[in-house]
């Protein structure tokens, strides 16, 4: 059974002002190409399918995109196994799960063999079996969503915790309990091939410069030393930096695209592993994915730096760039500087500028600098923000803002 392991799709994500939908869709299409090219039987997506920034209409379009991209794979008998991560909206995913179980109410009881050719989503700890298409032997799949209180802490005790640390300790224990319960299930065969898919931070893994939109203190970190002995393959999601830990067959595949500056050095990919009736055949293989360059550019002297950047980055059209700009009033025209940089780096996702004089002690007298009223401050801020817009448009917006400010003052 050929399994393709991926995770952390974050579909519908944004970076600053840039919508990442197209980048992420391309990556998903590449994953679908690999499914075909490598004769994959099971595509296992280990959580964080959707971005928390995706809106309902974006989610609808995402599902429609899956339909067009994965229909050939599913129709040819492929199966997609997914589970929820910490960024997946619980309401939306639970609705999907409920709708799917209404469509096939008898499918997916613990330990049962499920039919291939469709997508499964686990929003709770789940244990199912799939039969190999060619060999006919069953492979057990244990799917563990990210441990949230809603999914893992049931009943009275679940609601009682005095501190974040206590909540995390309960979740760590509940995650291990849920896994132990599944492995103790009467239908679980300790000798049969088994694969774990989990969205969780396993103790001892290497995080990049930061975790993705979650602090280390907030995160639930579980013990995983036994997992490589218990499973023929452990497919992890959550940490975006690709790596194996403890053993070559316990892996974070990483996200399918670089999602923030912290991932600028990551090589992205998906993992192919082959499971036979007696366990793993050979070691897992990494298949590369294209990743959009993300970097920071510091401009200290626009007159000198901009021509140099133009020569140095002739094809930065698609790069995601964080611009840090210093300019000198009277020497540089901010509007021109921003326009020139916009031409070199049209997909800048964030930018910040400072007047060189503003860096040292202020020379502006309090009467002109500190004494601005609320209305004046808002007006100046807006004028600055709209500096690259069409002049008539800018004036029209400022006029509306001034009108509103006047109304407020009255
Ligand atoms: Mn993620």
Automatic annotation (TrEMBL):
Key word Iron-sulfur present: no
GO biological process: DNA recombination; DNA replication
All residue ranges annotated as the Calcineurin-like phosphoesterase domain in the record: 1-242
Keyword annotations from UniProtKB, A to Z: DNA recombination, DNA replication, Endonuclease, Exonuclease, Hydrolase, Nuclease
Keyword set includes Nuclease: yes
Pfam families: Metallophos (PF00149)
Gene3D superfamilies linked to this entry: 3.60.21.10
GO molecular function terms noted in the UniProt entry: 3'-5' exonuclease activity; endonuclease activity
Sequence similarity: Belongs to the SbcD family.
Task performed by this protein: SbcCD cleaves DNA hairpin structures. These structures can inhibit DNA replication and are intermediates in certain DNA recombination reactions. The complex acts as a 3'->5' double strand exonuclease that can open hairpins. It also has a 5' single-strand endonuclease activity.
Assembly description: Heterodimer of SbcC and SbcD.
Official protein name in the record: Nuclease SbcCD subunit D
